[in-house]
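Task card 7
Instruction: Convert sequence to C-alpha coordinates.
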Amino acid sequence: MSAKKSLQEACEAYRAAFPPGELEMFRADPIDRVGIPAVAASLRLKTGTQFATHGHGATQDEAEAGALGKLAESVFTETALRAHAREKGTYRELARTRGPSGVVDPLKLCLPAGSPYHADMELTWVTVTRLTTGEKVLIPEEWVATRSGQLEGRTPLIPPITHGQGAGLTHEQALTHAILELFQRDGNGLRSRALDQGVVLDLKDAALGPELQLLLAHYERVGIEVIPKLACTDFGLVGLYVVGRDPALRDQPMALTACGEAADLDREWALRRALLEYAGSRTRKAFAHGPLELAEKLAPPGYMNRFLPYLELEDEEPRALQAMADWTQLSATQMRSLMEQRVLAERGRVPFASLPTSPNPGDARQRGDVLVRKLTQAGFDILVADMSPTNHSVVSLKVIVPGLEGETMSDHRIGERGVAKLLARQDPLAGLGKPPEGAQRVRLTPEAEERLGGPAWFHSRLAEAIVGRLYALYREPERHAAQLMPRRRRHGGAPS
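Output:
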Protein backbone atom coordinates (compact mmCIF):
# COMPACT_ATOMS: atom_id res chain seq x y z
CA MET A 1 0.00 0.00 0.00
CA SER A 2 1.35 3.45 -0.91
CA ALA A 3 2.04 6.00 1.83
CA LYS A 4 -0.55 8.34 0.31
CA LYS A 5 -3.28 5.67 0.34
CA SER A 6 -2.39 4.66 3.89
CA LEU A 7 -2.71 8.28 5.09
CA GLN A 8 -6.02 8.70 3.30
CA GLU A 9 -7.37 5.52 4.88
CA ALA A 10 -6.30 6.80 8.30
CA CYS A 11 -8.14 10.08 7.73
CA GLU A 12 -11.29 8.22 6.66
CA ALA A 13 -11.12 5.96 9.72
CA TYR A 14 -10.75 8.88 12.12
CA ARG A 15 -13.63 10.75 10.54
CA ALA A 16 -15.89 7.70 10.71
CA ALA A 17 -15.07 7.09 14.38
CA PHE A 18 -15.77 10.60 15.66
CA PRO A 19 -19.04 11.10 17.56
CA PRO A 20 -21.65 13.36 15.93
CA GLY A 21 -20.56 16.97 15.66
CA GLU A 22 -19.22 19.67 13.35
CA LEU A 23 -15.75 18.88 11.99
CA GLU A 24 -13.83 21.70 10.33
CA MET A 25 -10.36 21.43 8.81
CA PHE A 26 -8.39 23.78 6.56
CA ARG A 27 -4.85 24.71 5.54
CA ALA A 28 -3.33 27.22 7.94
CA ASP A 29 0.24 27.42 6.61
CA PRO A 30 -0.42 30.44 4.33
CA ILE A 31 -0.24 32.53 7.52
CA ASP A 32 3.53 31.85 7.50
CA ARG A 33 6.09 31.97 4.69
CA VAL A 34 7.68 28.52 5.05
CA GLY A 35 5.19 26.81 2.74
CA ILE A 36 5.21 23.38 4.40
CA PRO A 37 1.69 21.94 4.77
CA ALA A 38 -0.04 22.54 8.10
CA VAL A 39 -3.73 22.27 8.88
CA ALA A 40 -6.02 23.46 11.65
CA ALA A 41 -8.76 21.07 12.74
CA SER A 42 -11.64 21.44 15.18
CA LEU A 43 -14.59 19.32 16.23
CA ARG A 44 -17.56 20.64 18.14
CA LEU A 45 -19.75 17.89 19.57
CA LYS A 46 -23.50 18.19 19.87
CA THR A 47 -22.95 18.66 23.61
CA GLY A 48 -21.14 21.93 22.85
CA THR A 49 -17.71 20.59 23.86
CA GLN A 50 -15.10 21.82 21.38
CA PHE A 51 -11.72 20.34 20.51
CA ALA A 52 -9.02 21.98 18.41
CA THR A 53 -5.78 20.56 17.05
CA HIS A 54 -3.15 21.22 14.41
CA GLY A 55 -1.24 18.89 12.10
CA HIS A 56 1.76 19.19 9.82
CA GLY A 57 3.66 17.09 7.33
CA ALA A 58 5.58 16.92 4.09
CA THR A 59 2.27 16.62 2.23
CA GLN A 60 -1.30 17.75 2.87
CA ASP A 61 -2.36 14.13 3.43
CA GLU A 62 0.27 13.75 6.13
CA ALA A 63 -0.74 17.03 7.77
CA GLU A 64 -4.44 16.08 7.75
CA ALA A 65 -3.74 12.63 9.20
CA GLY A 66 -1.67 14.21 11.95
CA ALA A 67 -4.37 16.74 12.82
CA LEU A 68 -7.13 14.13 12.86
CA GLY A 69 -4.98 11.74 14.91
CA LYS A 70 -4.42 14.39 17.57
CA LEU A 71 -8.11 15.24 17.49
CA ALA A 72 -8.89 11.56 18.00
CA GLU A 73 -6.66 11.42 21.08
CA SER A 74 -8.52 14.30 22.69
CA VAL A 75 -12.04 13.32 21.69
CA PHE A 76 -11.81 9.65 22.58
CA THR A 77 -10.15 10.34 25.93
CA GLU A 78 -13.01 12.69 26.74
CA THR A 79 -15.72 10.19 25.87
CA ALA A 80 -13.96 7.17 27.42
CA LEU A 81 -13.22 8.83 30.75
CA ARG A 82 -16.81 9.99 31.07
CA ALA A 83 -17.86 6.34 31.33
CA HIS A 84 -14.80 5.10 33.22
CA ALA A 85 -15.40 3.79 36.75
CA ARG A 86 -13.61 5.54 39.60
CA GLU A 87 -12.53 4.20 42.97
CA LYS A 88 -11.78 6.33 46.01
CA GLY A 89 -9.28 5.36 48.65
CA THR A 90 -5.80 5.89 50.02
CA TYR A 91 -2.67 4.31 48.61
CA ARG A 92 -2.01 2.55 51.89
CA GLU A 93 -5.40 0.83 52.07
CA LEU A 94 -5.50 -0.03 48.36
CA ALA A 95 -2.01 -1.52 48.45
CA ARG A 96 -3.08 -3.62 51.41
CA THR A 97 -6.22 -4.97 49.72
CA ARG A 98 -4.95 -5.27 46.13
CA GLY A 99 -1.27 -5.92 46.74
CA PRO A 100 1.64 -3.57 45.89
CA SER A 101 1.59 -4.52 42.20
CA GLY A 102 -2.11 -3.70 41.87
CA VAL A 103 -1.81 0.02 42.62
CA VAL A 104 0.78 2.60 41.55
CA ASP A 105 2.68 4.35 44.33
CA PRO A 106 2.28 8.10 43.65
CA LEU A 107 5.85 8.61 44.90
CA LYS A 108 6.99 6.87 41.69
CA LEU A 109 4.97 9.21 39.45
CA CYS A 110 7.12 12.36 39.56
CA LEU A 111 5.15 14.57 41.95
CA PRO A 112 5.70 18.32 42.23
CA ALA A 113 8.48 19.21 44.65
CA GLY A 114 6.96 19.94 48.03
CA SER A 115 3.75 18.00 47.22
CA PRO A 116 1.56 17.47 50.31
CA TYR A 117 0.89 13.87 49.26
CA HIS A 118 1.00 11.13 51.91
CA ALA A 119 -0.01 7.47 51.83
CA ASP A 120 -3.20 8.13 53.85
CA MET A 121 -4.49 10.86 51.52
CA GLU A 122 -7.72 9.89 49.80
CA LEU A 123 -7.39 9.96 46.03
CA THR A 124 -9.61 9.12 43.07
CA TRP A 125 -8.29 6.19 41.05
CA VAL A 126 -8.93 4.66 37.61
CA THR A 127 -7.94 1.31 36.18
CA VAL A 128 -5.18 0.91 33.59
CA THR A 129 -3.45 -2.18 32.19
CA ARG A 130 0.14 -3.28 32.73
CA LEU A 131 1.37 -3.82 29.18
CA THR A 132 3.73 -6.70 29.85
CA THR A 133 1.33 -8.85 31.92
CA GLY A 134 -2.20 -7.62 31.19
CA GLU A 135 -2.70 -7.04 34.94
CA LYS A 136 -5.25 -4.39 35.94
CA VAL A 137 -3.68 -1.62 38.01
CA LEU A 138 -5.06 1.44 39.80
CA ILE A 139 -3.53 4.86 39.18
CA PRO A 140 -4.71 8.34 40.25
CA GLU A 141 -7.13 9.66 37.64
CA GLU A 142 -5.11 12.81 36.94
CA TRP A 143 -2.42 10.73 35.22
CA VAL A 144 -4.95 9.47 32.68
CA ALA A 145 -7.06 12.61 32.26
CA THR A 146 -5.94 15.29 29.80
CA ARG A 147 -7.83 18.27 31.23
CA SER A 148 -9.23 19.32 34.59
CA GLY A 149 -12.85 19.02 33.48
CA GLN A 150 -12.44 15.24 33.22
CA LEU A 151 -11.58 14.83 36.91
CA GLU A 152 -14.04 13.67 39.54
CA GLY A 153 -11.72 14.14 42.53
CA ARG A 154 -11.37 17.58 44.07
CA THR A 155 -7.67 17.58 45.02
CA PRO A 156 -5.58 16.28 42.10
CA LEU A 157 -1.90 15.81 42.78
CA ILE A 158 -0.93 17.26 39.38
CA PRO A 159 -2.63 19.23 36.60
CA PRO A 160 -3.66 16.76 33.87
CA ILE A 161 -1.49 16.79 30.74
CA THR A 162 -1.72 15.25 27.28
CA HIS A 163 1.76 13.71 27.23
CA GLY A 164 1.74 10.01 26.42
CA GLN A 165 -1.28 10.01 24.13
CA GLY A 166 -1.17 8.08 20.89
CA ALA A 167 -3.64 7.25 18.13
CA GLY A 168 -3.47 5.05 15.04
CA LEU A 169 -5.15 2.33 13.05
CA THR A 170 -3.34 -0.36 15.06
CA HIS A 171 -2.36 -0.83 18.67
CA GLU A 172 1.32 -0.81 17.62
CA GLN A 173 1.02 2.56 15.88
CA ALA A 174 -0.71 4.20 18.85
CA LEU A 175 1.66 2.65 21.40
CA THR A 176 4.79 3.62 19.47
CA HIS A 177 3.58 7.21 19.08
CA ALA A 178 2.76 7.50 22.78
CA ILE A 179 6.03 6.00 24.05
CA LEU A 180 8.15 8.14 21.73
CA GLU A 181 6.43 11.24 23.05
CA LEU A 182 7.23 10.17 26.62
CA PHE A 183 10.87 9.60 25.64
CA GLN A 184 10.90 13.04 24.01
CA ARG A 185 9.54 14.85 27.08
CA ASP A 186 11.81 12.96 29.45
CA GLY A 187 14.85 13.69 27.31
CA ASN A 188 14.45 17.40 26.67
CA GLY A 189 12.69 18.61 29.83
CA LEU A 190 15.91 19.74 31.54
CA ARG A 191 17.91 20.52 28.39
CA SER A 192 15.75 22.76 26.19
CA ARG A 193 13.63 25.92 26.38
CA ALA A 194 14.68 27.97 29.42
CA LEU A 195 17.34 25.37 30.29
CA ASP A 196 18.69 25.07 26.74
CA GLN A 197 22.12 23.45 26.92
CA GLY A 198 23.09 24.71 23.47
CA VAL A 199 24.34 21.41 22.01
CA VAL A 200 24.03 22.00 18.26
CA LEU A 201 24.04 19.07 15.84
CA ASP A 202 26.72 19.41 13.17
CA LEU A 203 25.22 18.17 9.91
CA LYS A 204 28.47 18.52 7.97
CA ASP A 205 29.61 15.26 6.37
CA ALA A 206 26.45 13.52 7.65
CA ALA A 207 25.50 11.92 4.29
CA LEU A 208 21.86 12.84 4.77
CA GLY A 209 19.10 11.15 2.79
CA PRO A 210 17.45 12.97 -0.12
CA GLU A 211 14.30 14.03 1.81
CA LEU A 212 16.34 15.68 4.56
CA GLN A 213 18.51 17.41 1.98
CA LEU A 214 15.41 18.83 0.28
CA LEU A 215 13.94 20.03 3.60
CA LEU A 216 17.15 21.76 4.63
CA ALA A 217 17.56 23.31 1.19
CA HIS A 218 13.99 24.60 1.37
CA TYR A 219 14.63 26.36 4.68
CA GLU A 220 17.83 27.87 3.29
CA ARG A 221 16.00 29.05 0.18
CA VAL A 222 13.37 30.94 2.22
CA GLY A 223 16.07 32.50 4.41
CA ILE A 224 15.46 30.65 7.70
CA GLU A 225 18.43 29.30 9.65
CA VAL A 226 17.24 26.08 11.27
CA ILE A 227 19.26 25.01 14.32
CA PRO A 228 19.00 21.31 15.22
CA LYS A 229 20.04 20.55 18.80
CA LEU A 230 20.66 17.38 20.78
CA ALA A 231 18.64 16.70 23.91
CA CYS A 232 19.91 13.22 24.75
CA THR A 233 20.65 9.68 23.59
CA ASP A 234 19.15 7.95 26.63
CA PHE A 235 18.07 4.33 26.09
CA GLY A 236 19.93 4.35 22.76
CA LEU A 237 17.37 6.68 21.18
CA VAL A 238 17.86 10.08 19.60
CA GLY A 239 16.14 12.98 21.33
CA LEU A 240 16.53 16.24 19.45
CA TYR A 241 14.78 19.52 18.72
CA VAL A 242 14.90 22.23 16.08
CA VAL A 243 14.73 25.98 16.64
CA GLY A 244 15.54 28.71 14.16
CA ARG A 245 16.49 32.26 13.28
CA ASP A 246 14.33 34.22 10.88
CA PRO A 247 15.75 37.71 10.29
CA ALA A 248 13.05 38.67 7.77
CA LEU A 249 9.91 37.93 9.78
CA ARG A 250 8.07 41.05 10.95
CA ASP A 251 4.29 40.55 11.01
CA GLN A 252 4.13 37.25 12.92
CA PRO A 253 6.37 37.45 16.01
CA MET A 254 4.82 34.26 17.44
CA ALA A 255 6.49 32.22 14.68
CA LEU A 256 9.86 33.18 16.16
CA THR A 257 9.10 31.00 19.22
CA ALA A 258 8.63 27.83 17.15
CA CYS A 259 10.29 24.56 18.10
CA GLY A 260 10.14 21.10 16.56
CA GLU A 261 10.80 18.16 18.88
CA ALA A 262 11.27 14.45 18.25
CA ALA A 263 12.60 11.24 19.73
CA ASP A 264 13.24 8.17 17.62
CA LEU A 265 15.33 5.06 17.20
CA ASP A 266 16.81 6.56 14.04
CA ARG A 267 18.55 9.94 13.79
CA GLU A 268 17.24 10.75 10.29
CA TRP A 269 13.65 9.95 11.25
CA ALA A 270 13.98 12.11 14.35
CA LEU A 271 15.45 15.02 12.38
CA ARG A 272 12.78 14.77 9.68
CA ARG A 273 10.01 14.88 12.27
CA ALA A 274 11.60 17.79 14.12
CA LEU A 275 12.14 19.82 10.93
CA LEU A 276 8.52 19.32 9.87
CA GLU A 277 7.24 20.05 13.37
CA TYR A 278 9.29 23.26 13.44
CA ALA A 279 7.37 24.43 10.36
CA GLY A 280 4.11 23.25 11.89
CA SER A 281 4.94 25.04 15.12
CA ARG A 282 5.51 28.30 13.26
CA THR A 283 2.10 28.00 11.61
CA ARG A 284 0.30 26.86 14.76
CA LYS A 285 1.68 29.63 16.95
CA ALA A 286 1.04 32.35 14.39
CA PHE A 287 -2.50 31.14 13.72
CA ALA A 288 -3.46 30.20 17.28
CA HIS A 289 -1.91 33.09 19.19
CA GLY A 290 -1.28 35.83 16.65
CA PRO A 291 -3.72 38.59 15.66
CA LEU A 292 -7.25 37.32 15.07
CA GLU A 293 -7.49 39.48 11.94
CA LEU A 294 -4.64 37.61 10.24
CA ALA A 295 -6.08 34.22 11.19
CA GLU A 296 -9.52 35.22 9.95
CA LYS A 297 -8.17 36.08 6.49
CA LEU A 298 -7.18 32.49 5.73
CA ALA A 299 -9.87 30.62 7.68
CA PRO A 300 -13.14 29.63 5.97
CA PRO A 301 -15.89 32.29 6.03
CA GLY A 302 -17.65 32.45 9.38
CA TYR A 303 -14.97 30.43 11.18
CA MET A 304 -14.48 32.95 14.00
CA ASN A 305 -18.24 33.15 14.64
CA ARG A 306 -18.39 29.37 14.88
CA PHE A 307 -15.27 28.89 17.01
CA LEU A 308 -14.86 31.80 19.43
CA PRO A 309 -18.17 31.60 21.31
CA TYR A 310 -17.28 28.11 22.52
CA LEU A 311 -13.93 29.10 24.04
CA GLU A 312 -14.05 28.65 27.82
CA LEU A 313 -11.43 31.08 29.11
CA GLU A 314 -12.20 30.15 32.70
CA ASP A 315 -10.88 26.64 31.99
CA GLU A 316 -7.47 27.97 30.93
CA GLU A 317 -4.44 27.81 33.20
CA PRO A 318 -4.17 31.48 34.32
CA ARG A 319 -0.39 31.63 34.13
CA ALA A 320 -0.25 30.16 30.62
CA LEU A 321 -3.00 32.48 29.42
CA GLN A 322 -1.33 35.56 30.87
CA ALA A 323 2.12 34.57 29.60
CA MET A 324 0.82 34.19 26.05
CA ALA A 325 -1.20 37.41 26.34
CA ASP A 326 2.03 39.20 27.31
CA TRP A 327 3.75 37.75 24.25
CA THR A 328 1.01 39.13 21.99
CA GLN A 329 2.23 42.62 22.91
CA LEU A 330 5.80 42.02 21.72
CA SER A 331 7.18 43.19 18.39
CA ALA A 332 9.23 40.87 16.20
CA THR A 333 12.41 42.61 17.39
CA GLN A 334 11.48 42.13 21.03
CA MET A 335 10.50 38.50 20.52
CA ARG A 336 13.69 37.77 18.61
CA SER A 337 15.73 39.24 21.45
CA LEU A 338 13.86 37.15 24.01
CA MET A 339 14.56 33.92 22.12
CA GLU A 340 18.22 34.72 21.43
CA GLN A 341 19.06 34.95 25.12
CA ARG A 342 18.64 31.22 25.76
CA VAL A 343 16.69 29.26 23.18
CA LEU A 344 19.05 29.90 20.25
CA ALA A 345 22.33 29.75 22.17
CA GLU A 346 25.18 27.50 21.04
CA ARG A 347 27.67 26.13 23.58
CA GLY A 348 29.01 23.10 21.78
CA ARG A 349 28.59 20.78 18.79
CA VAL A 350 28.02 17.06 18.27
CA PRO A 351 28.38 15.31 14.88
CA PHE A 352 24.97 14.23 13.65
CA ALA A 353 26.58 11.13 12.15
CA SER A 354 27.55 9.95 15.65
CA LEU A 355 23.92 9.51 16.77
CA PRO A 356 22.04 6.17 16.83
CA THR A 357 20.39 4.72 13.72
CA SER A 358 17.87 1.96 13.12
CA PRO A 359 17.91 -0.58 10.25
CA ASN A 360 14.12 -0.52 9.78
CA PRO A 361 12.69 2.65 11.37
CA GLY A 362 9.37 2.55 9.49
CA ASP A 363 7.91 -0.70 10.82
CA ALA A 364 5.50 0.18 13.66
CA ARG A 365 5.42 -3.32 15.14
CA GLN A 366 9.20 -3.68 15.23
CA ARG A 367 9.63 -0.16 16.57
CA GLY A 368 7.08 -0.77 19.30
CA ASP A 369 8.73 -4.04 20.32
CA VAL A 370 12.14 -2.38 20.54
CA LEU A 371 10.83 0.54 22.58
CA VAL A 372 9.00 -1.73 25.03
CA ARG A 373 12.08 -3.93 25.37
CA LYS A 374 14.34 -0.95 26.08
CA LEU A 375 12.02 0.29 28.83
CA THR A 376 11.42 -3.06 30.48
CA GLN A 377 15.10 -3.99 30.41
CA ALA A 378 15.83 -0.70 32.17
CA GLY A 379 13.33 -1.63 34.89
CA PHE A 380 10.41 0.61 33.87
CA ASP A 381 6.74 -0.30 34.12
CA ILE A 382 4.47 0.49 31.15
CA LEU A 383 0.84 1.24 31.93
CA VAL A 384 -1.81 1.71 29.24
CA ALA A 385 -5.28 3.26 29.36
CA ASP A 386 -7.21 2.18 26.28
CA MET A 387 -9.47 5.03 25.13
CA SER A 388 -10.38 3.48 21.77
CA PRO A 389 -13.95 3.90 20.49
CA THR A 390 -15.94 0.70 20.18
CA ASN A 391 -16.85 -0.78 16.79
CA HIS A 392 -14.26 1.30 14.90
CA SER A 393 -10.84 0.53 13.41
CA VAL A 394 -9.16 3.31 15.39
CA VAL A 395 -6.96 2.90 18.47
CA SER A 396 -6.42 5.66 21.04
CA LEU A 397 -4.17 5.14 24.08
CA LYS A 398 -2.83 7.05 27.05
CA VAL A 399 0.48 5.55 28.19
CA ILE A 400 2.08 6.19 31.57
CA VAL A 401 5.63 5.08 32.40
CA PRO A 402 6.36 5.75 36.09
CA GLY A 403 9.89 7.11 36.34
CA LEU A 404 9.97 8.96 33.03
CA GLU A 405 9.69 12.66 33.71
CA GLY A 406 8.25 15.89 32.37
CA GLU A 407 6.85 19.29 33.36
CA THR A 408 9.74 20.03 35.72
CA MET A 409 10.10 23.70 34.86
CA SER A 410 6.36 24.36 34.49
CA ASP A 411 4.82 22.35 37.36
CA HIS A 412 8.05 21.60 39.28
CA ARG A 413 7.43 17.88 38.86
CA ILE A 414 10.66 16.02 39.39
CA GLY A 415 11.74 12.53 40.36
CA GLU A 416 14.88 10.45 40.70
CA ARG A 417 15.99 10.79 37.06
CA GLY A 418 15.63 14.55 37.07
CA VAL A 419 17.49 15.00 40.32
CA ALA A 420 20.30 12.73 39.11
CA LYS A 421 20.66 14.72 35.87
CA LEU A 422 20.82 18.04 37.69
CA LEU A 423 23.29 16.71 40.27
CA ALA A 424 25.51 15.31 37.51
CA ARG A 425 25.92 18.74 35.92
CA GLN A 426 26.12 20.50 39.30
CA ASP A 427 23.05 22.58 38.52
CA PRO A 428 21.92 24.80 41.44
CA LEU A 429 18.32 23.75 40.77
CA ALA A 430 18.79 20.55 42.81
CA GLY A 431 20.76 19.20 45.73
CA LEU A 432 20.81 16.77 48.62
CA GLY A 433 20.17 17.38 52.30
CA LYS A 434 18.29 20.25 53.89
CA PRO A 435 16.49 22.42 51.29
CA PRO A 436 17.78 26.00 51.12
CA GLU A 437 15.36 28.92 51.20
CA GLY A 438 13.10 28.83 48.15
CA ALA A 439 13.60 25.09 47.59
CA GLN A 440 11.21 22.20 48.21
CA ARG A 441 11.84 18.57 49.06
CA VAL A 442 11.54 16.18 46.13
CA ARG A 443 8.96 13.48 46.89
CA LEU A 444 10.68 10.14 46.35
CA THR A 445 10.46 6.59 47.60
CA PRO A 446 12.99 5.60 50.29
CA GLU A 447 14.72 3.38 47.72
CA ALA A 448 15.14 6.29 45.30
CA GLU A 449 16.53 8.53 48.05
CA GLU A 450 19.02 5.82 48.97
CA ARG A 451 20.20 5.51 45.36
CA LEU A 452 20.68 9.29 45.14
CA GLY A 453 22.54 9.47 48.46
CA GLY A 454 19.83 11.00 50.63
CA PRO A 455 16.74 13.24 50.55
CA ALA A 456 16.78 15.66 47.60
CA TRP A 457 15.42 19.15 47.00
CA PHE A 458 14.41 21.19 43.96
CA HIS A 459 14.83 24.98 43.95
CA SER A 460 11.34 26.06 42.93
CA ARG A 461 12.02 29.78 43.35
CA LEU A 462 15.10 29.60 41.13
CA ALA A 463 13.13 27.63 38.53
CA GLU A 464 10.48 30.35 38.43
CA ALA A 465 13.19 32.98 37.91
CA ILE A 466 14.88 30.98 35.13
CA VAL A 467 11.65 30.43 33.24
CA GLY A 468 10.51 34.03 33.69
CA ARG A 469 9.03 35.39 30.46
CA LEU A 470 9.51 32.04 28.69
CA TYR A 471 6.65 30.23 30.43
CA ALA A 472 4.59 30.14 27.24
CA LEU A 473 7.24 27.82 25.77
CA TYR A 474 6.01 25.22 28.25
CA ARG A 475 2.27 25.71 28.40
CA GLU A 476 -0.02 27.31 25.83
CA PRO A 477 -3.65 28.31 26.19
CA GLU A 478 -6.32 27.16 23.76
CA ARG A 479 -6.29 28.49 20.22
CA HIS A 480 -7.17 32.26 20.07
CA ALA A 481 -7.65 32.49 23.86
CA ALA A 482 -4.79 34.96 24.44
CA GLN A 483 -6.17 37.32 21.79
CA LEU A 484 -9.76 36.89 22.95
CA MET A 485 -9.11 37.51 26.65
CA PRO A 486 -8.74 41.33 26.48
CA ARG A 487 -11.75 41.59 24.17
CA ARG A 488 -13.99 39.69 26.56
CA ARG A 489 -12.76 41.74 29.47
CA ARG A 490 -13.65 44.94 27.63
CA HIS A 491 -17.13 43.58 26.90
CA GLY A 492 -17.84 42.21 30.34
CA GLY A 493 -17.26 38.56 29.43
CA ALA A 494 -19.45 38.40 26.35
CA PRO A 495 -18.18 36.43 23.35
CA SER A 496 -16.47 38.65 20.80
